[in-house]
Amino acid sequence: MTDLDLKSLIRTIPDYPKPGIQFRDITTLLGHAEGLRHCIEAMAAPFAHARVEAVAGIEARGFILGGAVADRLGTGFVPIRKKGKLPWKTIGQDYELEYGVDVIEMHEDAIRPGERVLLVDDLIATGGTAHAAAKLLARSGGELVGAAFVIDLPELGGCERLERESIACHTLVTFDGH
Ligand code: AMP
Questions:
Q1: Would residue 53 show up in a list of annotated catalytic residues for this protein?
Q2: What's the half-sphere exposure (Cβ side, CA atoms, 13 Å) at 118?
Q3: How high is the pLDDT of residue 178?
Q4: What is the mean pLDDT of the chain?
Q5: Atom number, ligand 1, closest to the C-alpha of residue 21
């Protein structure tokens, strides 16, 4: 299976959740056994020899992909969640949305100092979420090895933004527009 086939397994929903947004729905990819396996292998492969020690995934689709990538790389998994969802002591990071501000959190003891971490999510658009997650991981003492996404929306510049901060950004398929 090629990356092109992977792209065909992603469903596009126009004007969701609001007019003008083309929502890239990966549930159709997740439901396809061969596609899911290929996707996880392709996300993990560039980091197979990068001495990754933990995979951090962003709620909620980043949990599904990140858990599987962690298993493949032989590491544990660290959840990064929306504010107020984690049960233990947390550190938080706010980031700008189109309208307003949002906060993501992780457990303050989830990462050991110097631990080599791979960040995983389904899609990178502006990079605001991934950038906030990278800050959070750095503040917790982790060393970010890179970030892996299924989908890149290159017109929104998220990968460029991460790479300007020397974070390797690995994506499998690209879509035009928002
Ligand atoms: P950003 O912070 O702008 O890079 O947005 C990335 C986050 O928003 C990811 O967690 C995505 O799941 C979600 N997201 C942004 N745009 C889309 C889109 N067009 N389709 C599906 N998810 C999206």
A1: no
A2: 34
A3: 82
A4: 96
A5: 19
Length of the chain in terms of residues written: 178
Contacts of 67 (CB under 8 A, 6+ apart): 55, 57, 77
Which of the listed CATH numbers 3.40.50.620, 3.40.50.2020, 3.90.180.10, 3.30.360.10 matches domain 49-174?
Answer: 3.40.50.2020
Rounded Cα gap, residues 8 and 98, in angstroms: 29
Catalytic residue selected from 61, 81, 105, 116: 61
Q: Could you count the other beta carbons within 10 Å of the beta carbon of residue 62?
A: 26
Query: What tens digit of pLDDT does each residue of 8-28 get?
Result: 999 999 999 999 999 999 999
What's the start-to-end Cα distance of the chain, in Å?
26
Sequential DSSP letters for 89-150: -EEEEEEE-SSSEEEEEEETTSS-TT-EEEEEEEEESSSHHHHHHHHHHHHTT-EEEEEEEE
Best mutation site among 103, 129, 159, 174 for ligand 1 pocket (most ligand atoms within 8 Å of CB): 129
pLDDT at 3 over 80: no
Pocket lining: 22 vs ligand 1, CB cutoff 6 Å? yes
